[in-house]
Amino acid sequence: MKILITGTSRGIGKAIAEKFLSEGHEVIGLDKDGASISREGYVHIVADISKGELPDTEGVDILVNNAGVQDSGEDIDINLKGTIRVTEKYGVRDGIKSVLFVASASAHTGAEFPEYAASKGGVISYMKNVALRIAKYGATANSISPGGVTTSINDKVMKDEKMWNRIMELTLIPKWASAEEIAEWAYFLTVVNKSATAQDFLIDNGEAAKAEFVW
């Protein structure tokens, strides 16, 4: 199948692209930065999802909306409006099989930066709208909401022992997910899954669920 993934130059997006490639799929990566993947079956297109023309690409079977920024001053424009632009062009049409959105645990808790949390909350609402509209094609639309993920963007937290220990105290299963684990979720929800749609899956090692009983 032909898979279009945004934000493939690093982190979660790169891991998702490599997962689909390892399963024998054709992958198109869309990113404002250059390619960091060089292997058979991968095509990289440099483009900004929030502005300018999006390239014409026919026959996309699966769309994974991963590209995003945090506390950039453009979180709403890129994370939400850019995601909408991409999905309306490639995902809402006959022939699409699945659309996946990478949201965030912040969409559930409201934590982190105001515009970031708002943008990811909007992504989940928009995902449900897309699910309603592509159901007539027999397609699914879902989102995943990762909590902490062990990517370089989080080095500031992971390398600060005091901060890291405090986060682990607040996490039910005291660890963060790897980008590769998130990629497995992405593959399952878009390829294996045929029945779950309009759902958001919180993958935060129980951080939002952590509760202490006080008598």
Q: Given this structure, which CATH class is correct?
A: Alpha Beta
Question: What is the beta-strand fraction?
Answer: 15-25%
Classification by helices and strands: alpha/beta
Query: Can you write the helix and strand succession as a string?
Result: EHEEEHEHHEHHHE
CATH architecture: 3-Layer(aba) Sandwich
Distance between the termini: 55 Å
What is the β-strand count? 7
- Specify the helix fraction band: 25-40%
Oligomer: single chain
Radius of gyration: 17 Å
What does this structure look like?
- The chain is 37% helix and 17% strand.
- The chain has 215 residues and is of the alpha/beta class.
- The protein has one domain: NAD(P)-binding Rossmann-like Domain (Rossmann fold, 3-Layer(aba) Sandwich).
- Strands 3-2-1-4-5-6-7 form a seven-stranded parallel β-sheet, sandwiched between helices.
- α1 crosses α7 (179-192) and α2 runs parallel beside α4.
- The chain is globular, with a radius of gyration of 17 Å.
- It starts with a strand and ends in a 12-residue tail after the last strand.
- The relative contact order is 0.15.
Question: Layout of helices and strands, plus pairs?
Answer:
Elements: E1 2-6, H1 11-22, E2 26-31, E3 42-46, E4 62-65, H2 75-90, E5 98-102, H3 106-109, H4 114-134, E6 140-146, H5 155-158, H6 161-169, H7 179-192, E7 199-203
Parallel strand pairs: 1-2, 1-4, 2-3, 4-5, 5-6, 6-7
What key phrases describe this protein's structure?
7-stranded parallel β-sheet; 215 residues; Rossmann fold; alpha/beta; globular
